[in-house]
Amino acid sequence: MTQGVIFLGTRQVGRRCLEILLAQRAALGLEVVEVVTKRPANAYLARNADLAAVASAAGIPVAEDLAPSGSPVEFILSVQHERVLSPDQLARATRLAVNLHMAPLPEYRGAGQFSFAILNNESEFGTTLHLMEARVDAGGILAQRRFAIAADWTVQDLYEKTVEESVMMFTENLAPMMRGELRPRLQSEFQSGRPLRFYRRSDLPAHKQLNLQWPLERIDRTVRAFDMPGYEPAYVMFGNRRLYVRTRDLLAG
Question: How does 171-207 read in b/e, with b if 16+ C-beta sit within 10 Å?
Answer without folding.
Answer: eebbeebbeeebeeeebeebeeeeeebebeeeebeee
